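#struct-help
A.M.: can someone run this one for me? Single chain, 247 residues.
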Amino acid sequence: MSLDAVLSRISEIRSQIDTLQNGGATRTVAAPGSAADSSTAFASALAGANGSTGTGTTTGAAAAATVAPAAPATSVDAGAGTVATGSGASGDDVVADAKKYLGVPYVFGGTTTAGMDCSGLVQTVFKDLGVKMPRVVPDQAKMGTEVGSLANAQPGDLIIPKGEGHVVIYVGDGKVLHAPRPGKDVRIVDNWYKDSDIATIRRIVPSAQDAAATKAAHAVSAAPSAGGTDLQTAALMSLLQTGKAAA
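D.P.: on it. Structure tokens below:
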């Protein structure tokens, strides 16, 4: 790509950004070499500015822009069939908060540091994060979205065995955090459940990856209205550098 071609594309991209800032226009299919192609070049440059793997996979904000945001619950109440995004908490926040209760003794029906049971622990952790959860396991088993298997579990997900008599919090690396039974305290142990033992795995708030992707996607989509953002500048500079290298 010649330097003149790069500068021409930069001009076209800036014109598109100006159009978006002024209210946007209906997008139409354009022939190769048109301004629509420029937007593809801009997207590619944006991917390069944020770290491309060179194999068609992007990382950082560029990858996030291709990830559909998790469907939000209508409030910070946990909902059935949707993740609760209202509190801003992620799965990693669930794990971090749950760890505060390590060592708390098991007390049936308890929800405080004086003692708590398995579902009381779960309810208390989500309450700390601003998400309202039901009190008992069968109701907790209906909240959030279902995760297909242990292989897809992320930190912060709830694992509920068949019979719905217990609930544990997945913390990652094959370990779970829970309040076991009378005479025991809240602890982290190796997960002993197999997929065949499990009634459901529930994701109540977004995983850390989904939360980061959604945040980055929002930042990218908001970039044109901000005008002259770092991401746009980085993308334009990437195009310019590509042109210089080819000249």
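A.M.: thanks! The CA atoms of residues 76 and 131 lie 5 Å apart.
D.P.: also worth noting: Residues 25-36, 49-74 have pLDDT under 50 and may be disordered.
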